[in-house]
Amino acid sequence: MVMRAKIDIEAEVAALGDLSREELTAQWEKIYRCAPPKGVRRELLIRAAAWHLQAKRLGGFSAETRRMLRSAIDRVEKKIANRDDKANVVVDDIKVTIAQKRKQVLPGARLVRDWNGKTHIVDVIEDGFVFEAKVYPSLSSIARKITGAHWSGPRFFGL
Questions:
Q1: Helices H, strands E: what count in the chain?
Q2: pLDDT in tens, 106-142
Q3: Which residues does 66 contact at the CB level (< 8 Å), separation at least 6?
Q4: Is residue 105 part of a domain?
Q5: Which pairing describes strands 94-99 and 134-136: parallel, antiparallel, or unpaired?
Q6: Angle between the 2-16 and 42-58 helix axes, to the nearest 10 degrees?
Q7: Mean pLDDT, the chain, whole residue set
Q8: Residue-range definition of the domain harbouring residue 86
């Protein structure tokens, strides 16, 4: 009896590979009650459907795994508790807090960064950033000019 159930699940999981992208998307929407993320690969749609099918039949996460996940989530939440702009997502009845995308700096803003004993000033304009009387398309290109190494511009300027 148990062996037959295992074979049935394996066959159903294998059959997911034969579904069209539209059918897989419909399954995702039924399971998660939302559309899949834009650009998600077909393979992830198949894996999500397979996991859900197996969890439904075999019981999902064990109590110990849920405890470990809860503990990991608590540690992450403590690390980001002092950040502004948080988004909450619920996955399998477990709340996960994710930092949202950085805010864009508005034209007219001035960014100041001290680096190796020199103060560097960047002005934000509509079409980019002005540094040392030259317009740059990104903060990363300015950070590279200042440091001589690749940096994330927003991170370098503390955004």
A1: 6, 6
A2: 888 888 888 888 888 888 888 888 998 899 988 899 8
A3: 94
A4: no
A5: unpaired
A6: 160
A7: 81
A8: 63-99
Judge if 8 and 46 occupy the same domain: yes
Q: How many residues are there in the chain? A: 159
Assess contact for 121 and 133: CB atoms under 8 A. Answer: no
Structure tokens given for 69 = 């996940």
Helices (H), the chain: 2-16, 21-32, 42-58, 63-80, 139-147, 153-156
Q: For the whole prediction, is pTM greater than 0.85? A: no
Location of structure tokens 């399954």 = 27
The number of beta carbons lying within 10 Å of the beta carbon of residue 131 is 19
Partners of residue 124 on adjacent β-strands: 129
d(CA 151, CA 148): 9
Write out pLDDT tens, residues 75-103. Answer: 888 777 755 445 555 555 666 555 555 56
Please give the Cα distance from 9 to 151 (Å, whole number). 48
Distance CA 62, CA 74 (A): 18
Q: Into how many domains does the chain fold?
A: 3
3-state helix, strand, coil in the chain (%, to 5): 45, 20, 30
